[in-house]
Design goal:
alpha/beta, Rossmann fold, globular, single chain, 303 residues, 8 strands, 45% helix, eight-stranded mixed β-sheet
């Protein structure tokens, strides 16, 4: 019994030490978050419900007005990869705004990324996105009726959840974010949806993707759902890698075609959406699997 007790005490001590080390690493890493954002932001937006929203805004080289896209980052936060993709999309004729959803935090350390997500409420995110959308609507270079939203990973889910609360959005693009599948809730979506997923993504079960597609169809929401076979989570990476072609290039081209078809050419009929707001909590299973994917899976990569 004494030996067992010593082993148990030893295990508890080791676990406690790991927890302390992880917590300390998150604190230390967080000290550099604001400095990291300095390199990838060029705009501060007014926010009636909180601090200014820091963002990167990319504009086409030709005069507007232009359609606009809100681009939401992964759970790492706003970084150079998102900035590069925003600039690439702007070259194609879009005003692109990539806001900081974590109010001053950005990282490449998975424990910090998880901390950023769990300490940022969906209500705060939607409130900050309201400020982003309101700013876009007032810009003379933006076609206010042609604003869409897209996101990657955490940003994919964020894009979907925000679209369920804002009936002015013209299109939604979800790149491997966790999903809402209830047709009664999905009816609130104001425009067409593109969903891109990896067939080997263990954080988002294919059954969920198929249920999402079925829910969109039952709700009468125009949609294009594609599963790229053999691809892990977060397989669309930097714009440099995208431009090398392959599956990343295919997925990016699909995004561009969808945006061109929904934002540059508006549909002739408008969808009527119900009043009210969708309220969502954290998807804890997805968050756990996300941490596993980025730490041990094929999608693990530095930003």
């Amino acid at each position: 019994m004494k030996v067992v007790r010593r082993i148990l005490i030893g295990v508890v001590v080791v676990v406690a030490a790991l927890v302390v080390l992880l917590a300390g690493s998150v604190v230390v890493d967080g000290m550099g978050g604001s400095a990291r954002l300095d390199a990838v932001t060029n705009t501060r937006l007014p926010n009636a419900n909180g601090p200014e929203v820091r963002a990167f805004v990319a504009r086409p080289s030709v005069p507007g007005p232009h359609p606009a896209v809100i681009m939401i980052h992964e759970f790492y936060g706003l970084n150079a990869e998102i900035k590069g993709k925003a600039e690439a999309l702007a070259e194609l004729g879009y005003i692109v705004i990539a806001p900081d959803m974590f109010r001053g935090r950005s990282t490449s350390w998975v424990p910090s990324a998880i901390y950023q997500v769990v300490t940022t409420s969906p209500e705060q995110i939607n409130s900050d996105l309201d400020a982003v959308f309101a700013w876009l609507e007032t810009q003379p270079e933006v076609q206010a009726e042609r604003i869409g939203i897209m996101g990657f990973c955490f940003g994919g889910r964020t894009s979907l959840l925000y679209s369920l609360t804002n009936d002015k959005l013209a299109a939604t693009v979800i790149l491997y974010g966790s999903l809402v599948t209830d047709p009664a809730q999905l009816r609130a979506l104001p425009g067409p949806v593109l969903g891109i997923f990896g067939g080997a993504d263990t954080s988002i079960p294919l059954a969920d993707v198929r249920a999402f597609e079925a829910g969109l169809k039952a709700a009468g929401v125009p949609n294009e759902i594609t599963i790229y076979e053999g691809q892990p989570h977060a397989f669309v990476k930097s714009i440099a890698e995208i431009r090398q072609g392959g599956v990343q290039g295919q997925a990016w081209s699909q995004v561009v075609r969808f945006l061109d078809g929904t934002l540059k050419t508006l549909p002739t009929t408008e969808r009527v959406t119900p009043e009210g707001h969708f309220i969502a909590g954290q998807d804890w299973r997805y968050l756990f699997m996300l941490a596993y994917e980025h730490t041990f899976g094929d999608s693990g990569h530095q930003h």
